[in-house]
């Protein structure tokens, strides 16, 4: 029933909505609550919003987000540039659903038409601070769509910056290693120098796995 309700809502949207990233972002925000258990979930999502680092957290199921993404991709046609603008708007708005939807779209838009470098585009999306979950979510989507891992040069660049890019490199390396692609010795040496925030057990464990002899 939730999927049917979402499909019904999307079917009512005028074709012109796909010509404006601003209108698409508004449509997505209206679509997120469709199918979400109403007030019974509100206290949980309010707490998650407070602690997660997202601007909102509605609890939209993954299958509905993918259904929404499919509608956006199917109806984009030649307007791939509009989708790229939408991705940037969603990530900047930074609801949990926004980040998830932006990740799915980034992994599946036609990069050759847009002439963009995938990982550089992702790098430019992220803010000074990000929930680890959001970074992992996008990394997993990109790899699930069979995109190549970043180049060694890009890893080295990320690891040489005193910014969140250090952690982006580590998380991406680890996701690659899980898939059987280990970083080379030069990258591992740079990872050994990365300082982990006190008390961050996830990053500490990932660093240990990447650098263990």
Please give a structural write-up.
With 213 residues, the chain is an all-alpha fold. It is built from 13 helices and no strands. α2 crosses α5, α6 runs parallel beside α9 and α10 packs across α11.
* SS class: mainly alpha
Distance between the termini: 52 Å
Proportion of residues in extended strands: under 5%
Bin the helical content.
55-70%
What's the total count of β strands? 0
Tally of structural domains? 2
- Order of SSEs: HHHHHHHHHHHHH
Instruction: State the shape.
Output: globular
Gyration radius, rounded: 18 Å
Sheet having the most strands? none
Overall pLDDT, averaged? 90
Multimerization state: single chain
Unreliable stretches covering 5 or more consecutive residues: none
SS element count, helices: 13
In short:
The protein is mostly helical. It has 13 helices and no strands.
Key phrases:
213 residues, 13 helices, mainly alpha, 67% helix, 0% strand
List the helices and strands and how they pair.
Layout: H1 2-11, H2 21-31, H3 39-52, H4 62-76, H5 80-93, H6 96-108, H7 111-114, H8 118-125, H9 132-144, H10 152-159, H11 165-178, H12 185-192, H13 201-211
Helix pairs in contact: 1-4, 2-5, 4-6, 5-6, 6-9, 9-11, 10-11, 10-12, 11-13
């Amino acid at each position: 029933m939730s999927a049917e309700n979402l499909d019904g809502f999307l079917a009512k949207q005028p074709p012109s909505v796909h010509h404006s990233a601003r209108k698409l972002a508004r449509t997505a925000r209206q679509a997120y609550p469709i199918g979400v258990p109403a007030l019974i979930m509100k206290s949980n999502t309010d707490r998650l919003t407070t602690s997660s680092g997202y601007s909102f957290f509605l609890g939209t199921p993954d299958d509905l987000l993918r259904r929404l993404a499919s509608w956006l991709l199917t109806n984009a046609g030649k307007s791939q540039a509009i989708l790229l603008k939408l991705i940037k708007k969603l990530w900047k708005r930074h609801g949990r659903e926004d980040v998830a939807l932006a990740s799915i779209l980034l992994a599946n838009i036609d990069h050759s038409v847009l002439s963009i470098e995938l990982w550089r585009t992702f790098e430019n999306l992220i803010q000074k601070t990000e929930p680890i979950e959001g970074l992992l979510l996008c990394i997993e989507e990109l790899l699930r769509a069979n995109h190549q891992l970043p180049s060694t040069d890009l890893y080295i660049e990320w690891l040489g910056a005193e910014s969140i890019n250090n952690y982006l490199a580590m998380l991406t390396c680890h996701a690659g290693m899980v898939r059987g692609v280990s970083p080379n010795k030069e990258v591992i040496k740079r990872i050994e120098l990365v300082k982990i925030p006190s008390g961050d057990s996830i990053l500490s464990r990932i660093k240990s796995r990447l650098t263990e002899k």
